[in-house]
Amino acid sequence: MAFDAAEAPVLVVDGLRTEFATGEGPPSVAVHDLSFTVRRGETLCIVGESGCGKSLTALSILRLLPRPYGRIGAGRVLLDGQDLAQISDAEMRAVRGRAISMIFQEPMSSLNPVLTIGRQIAETVMVHEQLDWSACMGRALEMLRQVRIPEPERRLQEYPHQLSGGMRQRVMIAMALVCRPRVLLADEPTTALDVTIQAQILDLVRDLQQETGTAVILITHDLGVVAEMAERVLVMYAGNKVEEGSVTEIFDAPTHPYTRGLMAAMPHLGGGQGHRGRLNEIPGVVPALHARPPGCSFAPRCPLVLDKCRVEAPPLLGVGGTHAAACWVTAGNA
Amino acid sequence: MWSYAIRRILATIPVLCVVAIIVFLLLRLSPGDPAAIIAGDNATVDDIAMIRAQLGLDRPLLQQFVFWLGQLLSGDFGNSIYLARPVIGLIMERVEPTLALSVTTMAFAMLLAIPMGVLAAWRAGSWVDQTIMALSVLAFSVPVFLIGYGLVIGFSLTLDLLPVQGFVSLSDDPLQFLRHLVLPTIALGLVYSALLARITRATMLETLNEDFIRTARAKGLAEPRVLLLHALKNASVPIVTTIGTGLALLIGGVVVTESVFAIPGIGRLTIEAVLQRDYPVIQGVILVIAAVYVFVNLAIDLAYPLLDPRIRF
Predict the structure, then answer these.
(1) Does any domain span residue B57?
(2) Which member of A101, A113, A159 has the closest CB to residue B218?
(3) Is B2 among the domain residues?
């Protein structure tokens, strides 16, 4: 969707640091000095392996970090200029579900099994817009139509277990968008779904985004989804932003060795005869929260690692356009 | 749904039959000859034989059982040996105090324990949680009679706020009825509350970790709504189950509580009957209590689909 780059961003995350209290000693840092912005109608994809801090970033924005250990250690989350990290709990509740909504990976477990779908959608309207219950149910019905659920009147009275996985995710989307939020956080919304359903759900999100102008932050590990949906891409590794740019910049010239690794690990179709060997993989795993190395956190797995990488973490360096990467080797001399 | 309900109702029949068999054998297998007890210390052999014939104890066991069961089904629980009155009448006279005490105790326990359990789970690990759980261990460990006498000493004898003991019928004086029930209800209810609070906490703790709780919070719902509607409704099946199975605990407690507070209920009747070896009364009481237990748990089973729509039979 076209958006005005001069327009002020809807959401600004500035120097976000998410930490977890540990028994003794300093807290573990799960998200480290993360900054990004999203504009109205824009889609930002946050990419990375499991454990990179993508979901924690989304939960930090909504201040839904697991209690009592998780907390925002530093930084600002500005929604239209208001710092969500500083407002009261009651003010934050008014933001959740109305200005910023979230949809989750697993639609079965994310819907309450003992309440009807209509009720779960309508109560969001009720808490935010103080309408009477029948008006709220009316809005729920209208929303079920918008997310293209067949027989919406009947579905309103049904429970989540009576729906298929794709339908459940549509219900989640209906629930998230019923108050027309300014920002939608979608945490791996299609990971648990069949491929054909995935495409339908992504189409739906994009269509609704065009109608409403909602900014979408899409968290995924699937570069296919990124290519499909993103205008801008943010690559996270071990709680750090390692690369950022427009979708074309990232796909045309992946700069950080981690991004290159992710690209290489993608299966290619039509690669010609005899191209059916093993997929490339990035050796090793994301370091655990309490065992992050000094210097660049990707250094232990990096094929291009220098001595310097193990000592000093590279800053984010511009490599042309809106494209930036944090690497001594590939971005340092650009 | 209806076929489930009917099947579940039919399933109580074998359970009740087993209860009946055990109760029947209880008398026949117990030490001492009931006929001899009834006849008294100075009876002759002929007297005992006559009484035995009267009670049908000289016939084959199976025949006795069938005869006894037939009587039961027609509402005849036999006669008390000591009072020479129908057992069913004795029990009916004693129902009101026990029923009143059970209802107030259950209400007290639920009103106390469920909020406490929810609170403890919500603030798991905090001093609130630790205090509630410590109190529940205490309440579960101290015997009912000790709590009962403690309450009597404190509220009745020292502060003179409530009657020491006894029972007043609801139809005679509603206010006195309630005043007499306060202390027995607390004494008996604390144990039950402790059990219920622990189960509520454990189930809520599990439920609060579910994804849909995060969804509820992400929608901007306030904590009371998250806890009481989204979490507690999901946790209700195990809690309601505990209310049903905990009834066994309550029944044991009723016997003690009624003795401590001199309440003329089923519990007292049971103790009197046991002390006098009044077998027909003992049998009658056991049958009634077992039937109540079975039917309450049946009612709970039938309530499950209302609590959780995923339960379909």
Answers:
(1) yes
(2) A101
(3) no
Number of helical H runs and strand E runs in chain B = 15, 0
In one letter, which amino acid is A92? Answer: M
Q: Does A234 touch chain B (CB under 8 A)?
A: no
Query: What is this model's ipTM?
Result: 0.88
Mark whether B191 and B49 lie in a shared domain.
Answer: no
Name the residue facing B219 among A68, A96, A106 (closest C-beta): A96
**Cβ distance of A96 and B218 shorter than 8 Å:** yes
pLDDT tens for each residue of B282-304: 889 999 999 989 999 899 988 88
Smallest Cβ–Cβ distance between B216 and the set A62, A94, A112 belongs to: A112
Do B44 and B177 belong to one domain?
no
Q: In A, which residues are within 8 Å of B230 by CB distance?
A: 112, 115
Give a yes or no: residue B191 inside a domain.
yes
* Residues facing B166 on adjacent strands: none
Bridge-based pairing of strands A43-47 and A232-237 is parallel
Question: In terms of domains, do B129 and B63 share one?
Answer: no
Same domain, B64 and B173: no
For A147-197, the pLDDT digits (tens) are 999 999 999 999 999 999 889 999 999 999 999 999 999 999 988 888 888
Give A86's contacts (C-beta < 8 A, 6+ positions apart).
A76
Beta strands in A27-169 (DSSP E): 28-38, 43-47, 70-79, 82-83, 100-103
The pTM assigned to this predicted structure is 0.84
Are B149 and B179 contained in the same domain?
A: yes
Is B39 in the same domain as B171? no
What is the DSSP secondary-structure string of A290-308?
GGPPSS-TTGGG-TT--TG
Residues of B with Cβ-Cβ distance to A63 under 8 angstroms: none
Q: Which domain holds residue B69?
A: 32-76
Domain tally, chain B: 2
As to burial, measured by CB atoms within 10 angstroms (0-12 exposed, 13-18 middle, 19+ buried), residue A134 is: exposed
Q: Does residue B109 sit in the same domain as residue B195?
A: yes
A53 CA: distance to closest CA in chain B (Å): 17
Residue B113 covered by a domain? yes
| Least Cα separation, residue B214 to chain A (angstroms) | 7
